[in-house]
């Protein structure tokens, strides 16, 4: 009991990871996986969570042991590593936030019945509001607010899943034909799902940055066991919730031939109906609010992290040894605002088509995942980390298995794209 209390008290990077991960990959992709392919999608979801675990764990391990971010570790391995990660960050800048804000805007329109309001305008208001919260509140506000949001979400989703399972699976339409699992469309969907399940591998550096911010905010450094326990709790929660979302999609939509909308507002309406059909219309406001809170917290965490990581990458690439390093805090507000403007432009350009933005973000994340995973392994196995704190043999083997798993899918995806075009 004392150990549980200690972990809950020290919630920080693991909590932010859970909040960030329970966004598009869970709310959109896990639900869609169950709705279109049924229980078979449980296999890639579980495999992705297991095989990608080391990549994220290394972000916590490296930073707690060395007091350096993964990004600084990349620089220590060679500037080529850092340039590669800089390119990934640039792509993330134009995709991840736009995808998250699109879904959140659609949920907000549905929640308040703003059907005559442009989704671009709603996204603009969201960008503005969250930017102000991040600039004023910083890390401390982010952590405290998410403890409440994630707690409410977990309880709401647990209850909803239990009720859906208790009521039983929806009736299949006559002559229902399951979607092929191993054709090109099925494989491409798995690539997208695994690419962001539980989230993109490049976000491991976000964990690293949040660990540093947690230490600054509390003026305290956790030992490696406490830090890993806190992260493991957040990781387990994200994996369980992914299965919950997939279960709800499977029990409520699989076998009905329902087409999932690529439009953010249309998907939001389907999502709310999906949750409430088994419980009753009276629950609509509660379910919609919980879903919106989920995406809102994901927007906050991703916006905060990409701003911090972008500043760190630029600083490392441009810093000269003989000059004093710039203070990151002086650039944080500017980075938050620039990200808001860039991603609002992406939303307008894609004409609010969630499918295009999410597909681009997930596929890019999937293709680069094995490379980033290898970079993280190089960091924790380097001389920066003392032998006693380096990952054990089983974790190293799991890392290589994850790299191989992701590499094979990435090669297959590139093969399909080359021959299709």
From TrEMBL:
Report any Pfam family annotated for this entry.
Nramp
Q: Superkingdom of this entry's organism?
A: Bacteria
Alphabetically sorted, this entry's keywords are: Membrane, Transmembrane, Transmembrane helix
Report the membrane topology from the UniProt record: Multi-pass membrane protein
Residue ranges crossing the lipid bilayer per the database entry: 40-60, 81-103, 115-136, 148-166, 186-212, 233-254, 274-296, 331-351, 357-377, 397-418
Q: Localized where? A: Membrane
- Main localization is membrane
The molecular function terms of the Gene Ontology recorded here are: metal ion transmembrane transporter activity
Q: Does the keyword Glycosyltransferase apply?
A: no
Task: Give a Gene Ontology cellular component term annotated to this protein.
Answer: membrane
This one is known as Mn2+ and Fe2+ transporters of the NRAMP family
**Which organism was this protein described from?**
Cellulophaga fucicola
